[in-house]
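Fold this sequence, please.
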Amino acid sequence: MGFLKRISSFWRGEAQVEETDVLWLVVECDKCNETIRVRINKKTDLQNEFLRPGEAGCAFTLKKEVLGKRCSNLMEVCLKFDPRCNIISKRLRTEG
């Protein structure tokens, strides 16, 4: 029955990603104070840094540009992840 459920959800356009693979970020614009929710799919949005076994440093990175609806302030979210996809570093840059 699980197979039929996946097929029917595909036709309805439902997401096939489990919530454990999703990270939600909340970004607030400095200019207009708009709060923007950003959905990150850990399986498809993260860039692999290809660490060698035992090598230190971040294993995955993410750079995502965020633009709200109220103003034209472009923001860039930069995140670094460990091999288990836990955030180890975060930075938000704004235009202007």
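DSSP finds one helix and six strands in the chain. The mean pLDDT is 83.
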